[in-house]
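Q: Convert this sequence to structure tokens.
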Amino acid sequence: MNSEEEFYDAETGLDSDDSLEVSFKDALVFDSSNQVTDGCAADYATVWRRRETLPAKMVTRSNFSVTSILRKCIGMELSKIAMPIVFNEPLSFLQRLSEYMEHTHLIHRACALSDSIERMQVVAAFAVSALASQWERTGKPFNPLLGETFELTREEDGYRLISEQVSHHPPVSAFHAESLKQEFAFHGSVYPKLTFWGKSVEAEPRGTMTLELLKHKEAYTWSNPMCCVHNVIIGRIWIEQYGTVEIVNHSTGEKCVLNFKPGGMFGKELHKVEGHIQDSRKKKCRMIYGKWTECMYSVEPKVYEAHKKSKKAGADSKKLKEGHSCDGENTVQETVTVIPGSALLWRISPRPHHSAQMYNFTSFAVTLNELEPGMERLLAPTDCRQRPDIRAMESGDLDTASAEKERLEEKQRAARRKLSKDEKKLSTRWFQLGVNPHTGAEDWLYEGEYFDRNFADCPNIY
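A:
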């Protein structure tokens, strides 16, 4: 067993994984020039730490009814429906997209592995981890304005990201993240189709994710599962992810097939993910299992099948917990039963204890709309941290937020009318429509140059 296998061992190394989780409670210390410093030697009169809370508590929704708005919208796509701002969360969808990067340590780990099957199982864990922040996040992110951008640079985690709203109808968001040491590139474009079905909102996450491990000359692609938010009108809101996700290594022909299980009768399967990794000859090499809300493990196929037969026969099986209901309400959250010999791939980071008063944000999400010292003069004028409606909502000023949102939307409509009158089309600044070289499908590709910070041609959208 090599050192990497010893690290994965679920029986002896279960707690060691915490060392790689981003801990904002013990955040790095930055000086006013945004350079990482030694916290012990820093001048505490000028140091700055990433925030751990929002400027104001979540605005109350108790005085608002969504029923009157949605009852006429059954079967319609929600991107075309104006929703009251109270049902938003104070982040742009572009910022929500950047939450894919919360568990970037998994990409770094994959880059360090020498075996392609081991890399695939860590990439699979990364694909699942990208969904974890959605758990209990029932607020709707702000729709990005056409030309809106979001930049995220995390030197301590070794990456930077740029995203842009490249289309308004249909709404398409493109992003590109890259390693500061040229180890990887992660990019994609997303066109989420939201449909209201009476009691639930279904989100179809159209778009492809592409992860390139440059050292290994490998490219992985996948699409996210379906997402459904239940009880949007009456009852306790709950979220399920379901469907099959296929992660393909285009360099080796290896594939990981993940089945995100729907809640099912009594909600026994809620949040569960099961699947396998197969080589280019379609032979199963590893089994993957866990919950997208908790953790993911891998195990040898023979061990997995033996455990499955043993459980079916009733040997050493656990009695199902009580409290499930067929519509998902009052579901008792079960921890994942670990199969002996399994390797821990990923575990979710704990949320702040006051997360429920902050739109159920993770520690990572809390920091996304923060303006670091000196940042405003470096950001593009289109960056969503500059949006006055999101800024006002974050501060708890709902009236100003609503008025600013209406003003920005009218300004966007006026700009489109002017372009239409002049028979022109607003061109994207940082991404261009092209062909994904790994899938052959149409995709929005990063043109580069954003971090040269030449923002003279950026549109005035705010």
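The longest helix spans residues 398-421.
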